[in-house]
Amino acid sequence: MSSSAPAPVSDSTDPAAVAVRLRGIGKRFPGVIANDDINIDVRRGTIHAVVGENGAGKSTLMKILYGVQRPDAGTIEINGEVVSLGSPADAIKAGVGMVFQHFMLADNLTVLENVVLGAEKQHGIGGAARREIARISEAYGLDIEPDRLVEDLGVGARQRVEILKVLFRGARVLILDEPTAVLVPQEVDELFDNLRELKSEGLSVIFISHKLDEVLAVADEITVIRRGTTVRTVDPAGTTARQLAELMVGSELPSPSTETSTVTDEVLLSVQHLGLPSPEGRPLLEDITFDIHRGEVLGIAGVEGNGQAELVEAIMGMRSGATGSIVLADKDLSGLSTRERRESGVGYVPADRQRHGLLLDSPLWENRVLGHQNRPPSARHGLIDKQAARSDTERIIAEYDVRTPGPDVLARALSGGNQQKLIVGREMSGDPILLIAAHPTRGVDVGAQAAIWTHIKNARRRGLAVLLISADLDELIGLSDRIEVILRGRFVATFDPHDLTPPRLGSAMTGAGEDA
Amino acid sequence: MRRSNKLAALFTAGILSLAATSCGSDDSGGTASDDASGGSGASSDIKVGMAYDVGGRGDQSFNDSAAAGLDQAIEEFGMTSDEAEAEDGEAESAREERLRTFAEAGYDPVIAVGFAYAPALTKVSAEYPDVHFAIIDDSSIEAENVAGLVFAEEQGSFLVGAAAALKSESGQIGFVGGVETPLIQKFEAGYAAGAEAVNPDIQIDSTYLTQVPDFSGFGDPAKGKTAAQGMFDGGADIVYHAAGGSGGGVFEAASEAGALAIGVDSDQFETADPSVQDVIMTSMLKNVDVAVLEYLTEVDGGTFPSGTTTYDLAVDGVGYSTSGGQVDDIADQLDEFKQQIIDGEITVPTTP
Amino acid sequence: MNTVTPTRATRTDPRLVTLVLRLGAPALALVAAFAITSLVLVLAGDPVGEVWSTILSVPETRNLANIINNATVLYLSGVAVAIGFRMNLFNIGVDGQYRTAAFVAAVVAGEAWLPGFLNTLLALMAAMAVGAAWAGIAGVLRATRGVSEVISTIMLNFISISVVAYLLRKAAVAEPGSNSLNTKEVPEGSRIPNLSIGDGPSTEVYGFVVIAALVGLAYWFMLNRTRFGFDLRATGQSSTAAIASGISVKKMTISAMLISGAVAGLVGMPILFGSSFTYGSTFQPGLGFAGIAIALLGRNHPIGIALGALLFAFLDEQSNPLQILVGVSPDIVNITQGVIVLTVVVSYELVRRYGVRLEQHAVARALAAEPAGRRDTSEKEVSA
Prior knowledge:
The structure holds 3 protein chains of 3 kinds. By secondary structure, chain A is of the alpha/beta class. Chain A is built from 18 helices and 22 strands. In chain A, 33% of the residues lie in helices and 26% in strands. In chain A, the strands form 5 sheets. Chain A has a 6-stranded mixed sheet with strand order 6-7-8-3-9-10, sandwiched between helices. A 6-stranded mixed sheet of chain A has the order 16-19-20-13-21-22, sandwiched between helices. The longest helix of chain A has 16 residues, at 185-200. Chain A is globular. Chain B is an alpha/beta fold. Chain B folds into 2 domains: 25-151 and 289-311, Rossmann fold (3-Layer(aba) Sandwich); 153-285 and 322-342, Rossmann fold (3-Layer(aba) Sandwich), CATH 3.40.50. Chain B is built from 12 helices and 12 strands. Chain B is globular, with a radius of gyration of 21 Å. Chains in contact: A-C, B-C. At the B-C interface, helix 1, helix 2, strand 2, helix 4 and helix 5 of B face helix 3, helix 6, helix 11, helix 12 and helix 14 of C.
């Protein structure tokens, strides 16, 4: 691999214009090489994207650059000076700041309090700090009011608070780890505007992602990492997402593709006039009515926060107060508990797999039991059948290509994609007739994404009804037989995915296409 | 996350309390044995084992009074001693084991301070028939090698009750008990009887700070202050406390209300904070030190007493203090009552 | 990546690794506790060597009996707390639960409505029912009203002290010359016989130690083998995942508190039926709080709790010799206990993190060892 490493493109660049130069960075853990001969130049005033599959070594690299881990080999230069980053404090001193994928904000504090927390020495905690926040917010168009409570802010605004925190501490190089994973398309556009603002002010942004369209849209340079080493740095102009992805996986790339229809006349799930009142007035769900047939995938499109999560939870029986009827294969689910619904043939891949889908500190076989405590092979006569559960977990590991040494490994130790494959395998193992998949490929690498798409297609072919919620419009259009758009708790439009483009669907999601 | 916060809180509390207790009684173990070799010229090969109740030496109350008697005996007879104290929340077997450890190590006699030792001593005294034991505030053990040292608290309380009634201008007085046990009820009963002997119409407010098994009423000045404040606000002008360490709060309340208070066990005029000294009209004396010293005097003389000895007014086992001179004007009347009790003309009740 | 050869990727049995880590944590903690306590002793000017030689002296048979007896009581308390812990419920109220239960059981047994061991059985059932009911109040409040069980159980502790004190005065029988308040004694025939482990006085251990062991076994079985135990652990680990999997968290909250309370009800029973035979003003308080420390020490594991209880009972037993023979404050024992709990919690967290890292590396290594083959299969699946 090292012999074929391409020459860095920065040979031609003026050294003074390089904000961050990484040379020959290597990091090994016992038995594993996380990084090996990484070479990257980030020019001042640019957005430099780092892309790679999960596990390719991106996060180790960023931890090294942010001082969380020390490299075993190589040098880090910031503004032409070789630095040694022993801790995040060192990194901040050197002007490197990091915005994590999972926000680190205290909900019950105001923006101001969150920003100054831990940086009280910079501008105090009073008027000076407030002025500085206002200045930064103004300068970079972040649109942040210092006295709002963080809990009242949306996801996009929270992310801007995180960026502001980093700028407040004097960062000139910002690392953003998967910043768009939690955002809806409109918010992504806003974020990109902010980033362009930053770079026009001479700041450098390192942007980690595996959403290739976004990377191509915003980055000035893109470095691809595969198996711990830099494969190539490319110019986004003249590079396609497909080429990038092939560089990432080192081979050809799958895509969600529609196959011949397997939809039948037989209605499996019938939801009639589903409503979910909210104590604060406007109902969370209102008069939702739809059928899903045997062998059909119904996609739900919508800007996040318009009732998708509530719809899923109402069908699963996790929300009290839902009205209307839910009938699955002639069985009325309305009055049943979540467990009874699951046992009536519902498989559920939750949106937040770490919080809702897994026991992270339990072994895989116990995660196999979760949600199936009442059914063989997990349990018999009220007792957990460990042997049977373990061997069935091994079956899932093999059939669903979960990459793990065995069923006794803790779920936490697996990568996101493998966790998700385990969940899909588990949910399919109860012989469901309805599969609810909420954002099934969010945050998983390309390989796992393809595998999960295959499993959803297989489920459809086997005659399941599938309810698919996704923010990835290509995924929705590619997999669904029909798409409903949800807006403010109501279905507002229905599309046939065959002649649908993401932009049309996107405008319908914001309400613009309501008449269309 | 939620749980770890709770844990943190728990540990913080735990560490603080550990730190507090360790500071308070750090020296309690060492002192006695060091004193022993000092002392006077007299010498004796008698080794006294002293098992205190919770609080131990330095509690400014009951245990300290017993310690004073022991110290005096060491001074006079040249005995040696070692000490151990009970801990809050310990198992019954820990009390037994304390007595046993003394007995095994050759201590004779072994003095158990406090009625809480009664069940343990019943057992251990039978196991070691050759070792002699004494127990303070209990007379329920019938064994050849056990001496019960009990006090007529009701008699002393009678006198301070009479003093309160004589001094009260409002005709309303109060009683604050630490923990509602039969022992403390004796104080209340005597106090009420004495007050009523002077003024049959007197109004007596009584309260107890805590109920068994919560013994914190003997060590919580804040509770004592609140209780006494309520009585002063309600019109009482003298409050008697039998509440150990909580009594400090009673004195404070009296000081703030411009009223009077009566101390207990020892002459609290001498030991109380100078700022509240002038509110301590008198104290009911329960001379545990006298009892311990007398017991050890007999032991030094070669005899080990057994059976129950009651320390009452007749032997000055109980009484009242005159420091500060606030009861000098009624001393004649009080001594008259005292004589009547000694003569048996007045029988003081032991239950309220 | 080219340096990792498949042959080097040895596969250690993850369960073996887990076992080593599990044993390593308490060992690390004890060594740290030993060092810290020694430091405290040096700072306090106490004789370090003498203190340790006394603490670590081989106990005599009667001391051994005391240790086992106290450990039995502490064990039950630890298990009661651990049941709550497993579900992330902080049952601080074991103290009030066991005292209320012990009082009721003492009254029931003292009244002797039934003959012999039927009387014992009835009293034990009453104790468990009272403990469960007392804890159940907190469970219902938590499930229906969202009241933190920490607050409600602390309040219930206070209430139980007052209620029991009030009832004790009603139920107590007076004994001449004694200053204690006690309920009627349990009749001879209803006492649980003690088991002798040696000669001499006080070398008997509670017969209840057998029942405590059975409770531990039942706890283990419930937790690891039953669906209910699985639901309990799942809810404790992640209530969100539990809800999504169909577990009714409300039901689990109430059930867990009821079971925790029922076990708490048994805490005072070894004492009642094995040594005191009565509930009185000197009935041992504070066992519920000791149980919290012991459950932490034992990591909520039935064997771990037993070891923790034995360790605490052992240290308690050394308190008297330390005072009398060495002349140091008994607080040294308390400090040691506190330090042990702290170091155990810290070292377990360290070891847990280390274990997770180790495992993540194991996973990465296992994958790195066979990248080519796996990739091919996945590719085939995709194109199929």
